[in-house]
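Format notes (please read before filing issues)

Several people have asked whether sequences and structure tokens are stored in separate files. They are not. Every record keeps both together, in the order shown below: the sequence lines, then the token lines. Line labels are part of the format and must not be stripped during preprocessing.
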Amino acid sequence: MKALVFQGPGRTAWTDVPDPAIEDAAEAIVRVDAVTICGTDLHIVKGDVPEVASGRVLGHEAVGTVVEIGGDVRTVRPGDRVLISCISACGRCRFCRESRYGQCRGGGGWVLGHTIDGTQAEYVRVPFADLSVYALPNSVDSFDAVLLADIFPTAYEVGVLNGGVRPADSVVVVGAGPIGLAAIATARLYSPARIIAVDLADARLAAARSLGADATVRADEGPEELVADLTDGLGADAVIEAVGVPDAFEMCTRMVRPGGRVANIGVHGKPAVLHLEDLWIKDVTITTGLVDTSSTPMLLRMMAAGRLPSAELVTHRFELGQMEEAYEVFGSAAETGAIKVVLGGPQHTVVALPDASVA
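Then the structure lines:
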């Protein structure tokens, strides 16, 4: 089969690899029907995730059709259309019993495209299939459902829930990429007083406004001053970091109010300075986290009911064999306007974004 293989920092190839095979009775083999690229994949390609070895098939988000199951799998069968979660869960270890699947110590956690071969391929081996794939209702399109593999549960759990977003809060989301936009969409579920989106790309700020941001501002045009103006100088109740660079994290800590919360989602490849000389007196809570995907069933029900946006997030569609081109487009988002790219099927279309609007 064909797959996107990491060949060391800065190098990947869409090339032939052996077909996956069942290695454990709890596993399933899934034919990939729709797959996407994550910002974390770009970090891997840059060399920011050194535990990913050369030769690894990348990718941890997909929708597909089950073609084979191990003898212990009970919840799906061949022919079922399923969502493949970015997190695998053994279901037995201490953390899985606490629904903290991202910290699984029984062979799960974030393994696809990380420590085992991933989803950017024609077929993928999924461990712990009973707890790591979700049967999809006919009402949910595959190209929409793939957004539930990672970005929606990550934004909701690591951003909105960890950030303690509450009614009437002022919320700042730094980074209006896929995760940041999903954080805006899910933060709205809690009726905050205002959501402020910060990014360097006008197209992404326009998408943020279309998804419910009340104010948008370029990162190089005084976001800290805008937040101060909109909060009577106090700062935001919750600030969500969705970039993964030191400047963004440090900006977040300057924009939070005393007693506020900073929720870091971004994958950081370099150290960020924690200015405790300023923060120690402010009663600020800072959270980090890898998604657990415990919210995936709830989010799937919301998507089936038409309560989650999806079309606004997918800007480019490619055939599976155009994986390398898709990486180029996604990795050059400032020039291409890419937010989320999805591959699979015969389509290669670009969805027009609304005009940029900067507050």
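For reference, the curators noted about this record: Residues 347-359 have pLDDT under 50 and may be disordered. DSSP finds 13 helices and 15 strands in the chain.
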